[in-house]
Each structure stands twice: as structure tokens, then as C-alpha cells.
């Protein structure tokens, strides 16, 4: 038997095996159980999030031997045929290569005939946004009032190119990007089945590089196995895909927060010399500062953070030493740097200047921080006055007149503020 890539081998075969799309699974399952299956569905989402997989699972649930039902047996002959693309009642069409009006007319004519084995004749059209306007228009009438035995399932990565008249005739489901933690769990379970030894750091590195696409993550793992065998560490992942370790991103983040410009330049120079993708470094930094920002405004340890426990503790520590408004300014600078780098000949120079700007933001006091400092000074001033009054009352050696005069001749809070402002102005100049 020929080798089967892991992305196909690990493809989910039932609703229970799909990860990260619980909202879609629940709706489809309830529709099947309550006999409220629509005639047309549209699955929207980034690549590798499970659009085609869900379409096939839906087809199995509708055409299983004693169905439709959500808890079908994937080992039934008809389910195996659907999974392998051999079912004559489930027709998969690539919208990119079958995008003409003639192909749609053929589909419309064939839809009139009843299914052979299953209950429904199901048309799965992948990348449906690639159909021409004429093809969409030819499909409209059939899509609006199809024969009772026909179901349509569309999938697209670019829903904005789909005609509104098509959208209005479908039930739309938006598939989410798979979280890093879910990808790591899925890869770890698969590696246990395949007896592959891989470190947690390597799994997190693969998940970060996949950008929410589970299929991309599994394909990357498959490539790593070909490169390294069944014993994989983080350095292997970084070497093969040109990624940057979390430790380096942490060092770079810390250098920005400490305004260590020399360290920033040294790190960027090392990354550039080693052939790392500097654009990817910028994206990683944006995500890193976003996580710090979450901890700035939340006391929860792991709220909406896709990171290991060790990484979360680092974010929490960094967030404790900086104001959230500064982090927002840094993120804005990084986003601007990222957009400028896309078309720059020297990405290194743009990244260096962008990070230096970020470091300047980190060392400049915000209005909130100034207010806090002034509040501290006022509190300290009031406490000193209170202490001196108490000392005066208890003292028999100092006269009342002279003591109070000395007490209220102290600099007022307004004078302290002016002095503080002048120091800030000198520092900026």
C-alpha cells in the first residue's frame, strides 16, 4: 500500500473528532436530530480549519444506512466511499477548475435524477468563490428551489467574492482558526498513536507556525518526520521552517521594555545573519505584546492566552512593570512597522528603526503614570504634615507659633508638580 500523508490519515471521520468548531458541530447535529436540515450550507473560514472535512462528515450523516443521524458508523461501506471520494451520490466539485456556466448547467441537469444508494444527492463545491458570475446566476434557481433529494454544501476561504444572492440562499457557518493549545493537543495525541517522540516546545513551535490551520500543522509535522525521524526537538522545527524561538522573542521583548537599543540591534543582526524571516519576527512580537496587554488589564492567569504555563508567568511578570497604554503604543508601532516592511528592500533596517521607536515609547512616562506619581507625592506630603502636627502637640519644647509657621512654610503640592514637570521637560529635551 502506498504511503498516505498524515493530513489525510488523521482527517476526522465523525463530528466528535472535529476540534475547535464546537458551535458548528452543535448546530449541524441538532439540525439532523430534529429533522431540520437545510437545502444549502456555506462553510467559511481560513485554510486548514475543517471546511471540506465537515462537508464530508455532513454527507455521511445524511446518507448513512439508517440515517440521517449524527452518531453514524464511519466504517459503513457508504461512509467509506464518501471518505474516499468514490460515492456516486456525493459529488465533490472544485470551484477553481469547474467555474464556467456549462459545468453548472450540467450540475443542474444531473440534480434532477434521484440518488442511487443514499437518501440524498449531495453536491460539495470547494472554493465556491471561484465560480464566475454567469455560473452563480445559472445556479440561483436550482439553489433556491432544489429537488427534495438534493443538498448543497459550499466551502470558501473568501466569502466576500460570493454573490449576495447566493449567500441569502444558504445557511452560513464561520469556522474559527484553531487555537494553539488545541493544535498542540491534537498533534500530541497523533504522535502518541504513531509512536513519535516530540518535545512540548517543538509542538508549540509547530502550532505557532501553522497560524490556526490544523492541516498546515499536521503537514509540517509530516515534513519534520521525513527530515529528523521519530525523535523531534524544538531546534529541528526552527531550523526547517525558519522560525524564531520563544526565548529570543522574550529577550527581544525585554530589551524593548528596558530600552536597551544596543541589545535590540545585536539580536536583529543575529536573526538576519541566520536567515530568519524578519517579517515573522514582527508578527511574533505583536502577539507577544498582545499577551502582555491582556495581563495588564486582567488578573486572570490564563484568560484567552494560547501559551504554556511557563510563558504565561513571563507575560505576567512583564505586565507588572509597565502601563497598559504604553503597550498599546508599542503594538501600534509594531503594526505600522509590519505594514512598511512588506514592500521594503531592507527589512532589517525597517525592523531596527521600528523597534527603537518602541523602546522610546517604553521609557516615556504616560499621563496615567504621571498622575499616579503625583498622587503618591500628595499622599506623602499629607502624611508628613499629619506627623509633624502630632509631634507638635506632644512636644513641650517648641513654641506653637514658630512650629506651625515652619510646618506650613513647606512647599505646596502645586510647587511639587511644577518642579516635577520641569524635570520631565529637561529629560525629554
Descriptive account of the structure:
The chain is α/β, with parallel strands linked by helices. It folds into four domains: 6-174, Rossmann fold (3-Layer(aba) Sandwich), CATH 3.40.50; 180-241, Orthogonal Bundle (Helicase, Ruva Protein, domain 3), CATH 1.10.8; 272-363, no CATH class; 367-428, no CATH class. The chain is 60% helix and 7% strand. The chain has helices at residues 6-9, 22-33, 51-63, 77-84, 101-110, 133-144, 164-167, 180-194, 200-210, 214-228, 234-241, 246-257, 261-273, 278-297, 309-319, 324-341, 347-363, 367-394, 400-408, 413-428, and strands at 40-44, 90-94, 121-126, 150-156, 171-174, 197-198, 231-232. A five-stranded parallel sheet has the order 2-3-4-1-5, covered by helices on one side. The radius of gyration is 31 Å and the shape is elongated. The termini are far apart. The model has no long low-confidence stretch (mean pLDDT 83).
Amino acid at each position: 500500500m502506498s504511503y498516505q500523508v498524515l493530513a489525510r490519515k488523521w482527517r476526522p471521520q465523525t463530528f466528535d473528532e472535529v476540534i475547535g468548531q464546537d458551535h458548528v458541530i452543535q448546530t449541524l447535529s441538532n439540525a439532523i436530530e430534529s429533522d431540520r436540515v437545510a437545502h444549502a450550507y456555506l462553510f467559511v473560514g481560513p485554510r486548514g480549519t475543517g471546511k471540506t472535512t465537515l462537508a464530508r462528515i455532513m454527507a455521511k450523516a445524511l446518507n448513512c444506512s439508517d440515517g440521517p443521524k449524527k452518531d453514524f458508523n464511519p466504517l459503513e461501506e457508504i461512509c467509506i466511499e464518501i471518505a474516499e471520494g468514490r460515492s456516486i451520490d456525493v459529488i465533490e466539485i472544485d470551484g477553481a477548475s469547474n467555474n464556467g456556466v456549462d459545468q453548472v448547467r450540467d450540475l443542474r441537469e444531473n440534480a434532477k435524477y434521484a440518488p442511487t444508494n443514499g437518501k440524498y444527492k449531495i453536491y460539495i463545491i470547494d472554493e465556491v468563490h471561484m465560480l464566475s458570475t454567469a455560473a452563480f446566476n445559472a445556479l440561483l434557481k436550482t439553489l433556491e428551489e432544489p429537488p427534495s433529494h438534493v443538498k448543497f454544501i459550499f466551502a470558501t476561504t473568501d466569502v466576500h467574492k460570493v454573490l449576495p444572492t447566493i449567500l441569502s440562499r444558504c445557511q452560513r457557518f464561520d469556522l474559527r482558526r484553531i487555537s494553539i493549545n488545541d493544535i498542540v493537543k491534537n498533534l500530541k495525541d497523533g504522535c502518541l498513536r504513531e509512536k513519535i517522540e516530540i518535545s512540548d516546545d517543538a509542538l508549540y513551535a509547530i502550532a505557532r507556525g501553522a497560524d490556526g490551520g490544523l492541516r498546515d500543522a499536521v503537514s509540517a509535522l509530516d515534513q519534520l518526520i521525513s527530515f529528523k525521524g521519530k525523535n523531534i526537538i524544538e531546534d529541528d522545527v526552527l531550523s526547517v521552517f525558519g522560525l524564531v524561538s520563544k526565548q529570543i522573542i522574550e529577550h527581544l521583548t525585554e530589551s524593548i521594555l528596558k530600552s536597551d537599543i544596543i541589545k535590540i540591534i545585536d539580536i536583529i543582526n543575529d536573526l538576519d545573519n541566520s536567515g530568519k524571516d524578519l517579517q515573522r519576527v514582527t508578527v511574533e512580537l505583536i502577539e507577544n505584546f498582545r499577551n502582555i496587554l491582556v495581563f495588564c488589564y486582567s488578573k486572570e492567569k490564563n484568560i484567552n492566552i494560547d501559551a504554556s504555563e511557563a510563558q504565561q508567568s513571563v507575560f505576567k511578570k512583564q505586565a507588572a512593570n509597565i502601563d497598559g497604554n504604553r503597550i498599546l503604543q508599542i503594538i501600534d508601532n509594531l503594526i505600522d512597522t509590519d505594514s512598511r516592511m512588506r514592500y521594503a528592500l531592507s527589512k532589517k533596517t525597517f525592523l531596527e528603526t521600528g523597534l527603537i521607536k518602541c523602546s522610546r515609547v517604553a521609557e516615556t512616562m504616560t499621563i496615567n503614570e504621571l498622575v499616579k506619581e503625583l498622587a503618591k507625592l500628595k499622599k506623602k506630603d499629607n502624611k508628613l504634615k499629619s506627623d509633624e502636627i502630632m509631634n507638635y502637640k506632644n512636644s513641650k519644647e517648641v513654641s506653637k507659633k514658630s512650629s506651625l509657621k515652619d510646618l506650613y512654610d513647606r512647599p505646596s503640592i502645586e510647587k511639587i508638580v511644577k518642579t516635577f514637570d520641569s524635570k520631565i521637560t529637561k529629560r525629554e529635551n
